[in-house]
Write a structure and sequence with these properties.
With 106 residues, this protein is α+β, with helices and mostly antiparallel strands. Helices cover 22% and strands 37% of the residues. It contains 2 helices and 9 strands, in the order H-E-E-E-E-E-H-E-E-E-E. Helix 1 (3-13) packs across helix 2. The chain starts with a helix and ends in a 5-residue tail after the last strand.
Length: 106
């Protein structure tokens, strides 16, 4: 765990802006919160409680670190082996994947 990854994940989960170096979290006008690494969107948290991740076609240690902190909230681990991603739920292609869906109560 590193401080930037942890703080970015907390900002994403709490729908609040954050910026340190190459990592930003912003909230769009529709209320969707985006985690970006070097300007590439790698995670999003929707107002209705859904969370999605992608590697934005970058299978790097930094991408792994940022996503790992997000996934910790849901008990999911992420690793890389021979340039391929593995989640504790199985192999992952790096494409947009919904990792959590908790509808808000009305």
């Amino acid at each position: 765990m590193n401080k930037t990854s942890r703080n970015a994940a907390l900002a994403l989960m709490n729908h609040r802006p954050y910026r340190v170096g190459n990592t930003t979290v912003d909230v769009d006008p529709e209320g969707v919160t985006h985690l970006r690494l070097f300007g590439n969107r790698i995670a999003k948290h929707t107002p209705d409680g859904r969370v999605f991740i992608t590697d934005a076609e970058w299978c790097t240690r930094t991408t792994q670190a940022r996503l790992s902190e997000v996934l910790l909230f849901y008990g999911i681990g992420i690793s890389r082996s021979r340039g391929r991603w593995l989640l504790t739920t199985g192999p992952w292609t790096g494409e947009w994947t919904e990792v959590y869906n908790q509808p808000k109560e009305e």
